[in-house]
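User: Some background: our group keeps a shared notebook of sequences we're curious about, and every so often someone picks one and asks for a predicted structure to add to the entry. Today it's my turn. The entry only has the sequence so far, pasted here. Could you supply the structure so I can complete it?
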Amino acid sequence: MAVPVDDAVSDAPKHFCGIVAMAFNSDVKYDLKKALRVIQHRGQEAAGIAVYDGKAIKYVRRMGLVHEVLAGPEYDAIAGNMGIGHVRYSTTGSSCAQNCQPIVVTTNVGDVALGHNGDLVNSTKLRTKLQNDGWAFLTTTDSEIIIRILATELTQNPDPVKAIRSTMKCLDGAYALVFAIGNRVFGARDPLGLRPLCLGKLEKGYSLASESAVFDILQGEFVRDIAPGEIVEITSKGFISHRASTPAHTAHCMFEWVYFARPDTIMDGREVYDVRKKLGQVLAHEQPADADVVIPVPDSGRANALGYAQESGIMYEEGLMKNRYVERTFILPEQAKREEGVSLKLNPIRSTVLGKRVVVVDDSIVRGTTLRKIVQMLRRAGAKEVHVRIGCPPVIAPCYYGIDMKTRDHFIAAGRTFEEIAELLGADSVGYTSVKGLQSALGLSEQDLCMACLTSEYPTCVPGEKMRFQKTLI
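Assistant: Of course. Here's the predicted structure to add to the notebook entry:
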């Protein structure tokens, strides 16, 4: 599977998408661009915005980073006081120009634009039904399925809130959505809260975004998270909430705190940086190591490593230098090139590791290819011992909700002991945070978290997999 160079420095899973929406008393175009740059880490393949210009929804979208896509005559030509934006990493649907978002369609109530973060587990069933009803699809994404259903609902009932609610009843899986429906802007979050969405107040109006850091950097105010199952309409003067009944328990994706979100983001009431530092502290308590120095895998393992060092009393130092100027959009499709990418991106700081017993800490590990390369680097730089510690419990099962890890044989931890994993990595030892340790750091019970990739128990119906609290579905 293709891996961007920037992701080659971590064994963590790959990003999914990020969304924003704004309703201002002035042009939103420039602030949408700024907001998308804040959440660029959530998707680096494609970007786009769609704005309502008073008559119709105009959009710019294509492959590339935000500053590449939102520039030039096409971008300069559009303007409007309300709109939505999207950055993409492909999960369902291939990486190509026609799958860029926002998706825009014309309905009997006017133009509609959609930005979607997440994956549907019933997309095949829904697509087949829509095709049998006569719909022709222009993309391979499940996001187009959502907007086609919405268009049908709007034809039958022009009330946007009722149409969105009816659409949500058809969807099974993970989604945070932003819509521009004519001159109105909405956001919605799946009933289990799998994907994040939050509300902010800016000087010019109101905004929705995948992460609260957007509002900080735009000098605004984080108001609150959108509740699971909630629909919110934003205007330049305020917001209107439409809540619905939800399941007794949520299923917030634990990987948001472990890896995906920015450390300065507050998500479902918890600061991401604080959670990651606590994970490192729990890891040090559960998986101690007799060592001289703790180093992070930059940048994702830094907070975990700091927490590990504080709890263990072992000195923290930077032991790997990261080259930040390797092209981010270059794709490395082959394993040999991925490993070459690691060498280009990271280099050991010899004075930190020479003759030392080193604990190298990362936030998570999936395949293990990158960490194996890092262990080799540290040994060549003179490390006496290398002990690998991971802030997330072992990943053993696929994700069907928008994270790019769908094949069990990719997971280094599946069916292996810690000792066997250490041997594969070339490390002296390997240790992971436990599932209970993860829950403790997050301050959430297992009943309110999605940990399917750790436990093989899923919060929604996935054929062939065991459903949380229920039996395997056939």
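Suggested note for the entry: The chain has a mean pLDDT of 89. The domain at 3-267 is CATH 3.60.20.10 (Glutamine Phosphoribosylpyrophosphate, subunit 1, domain 1).
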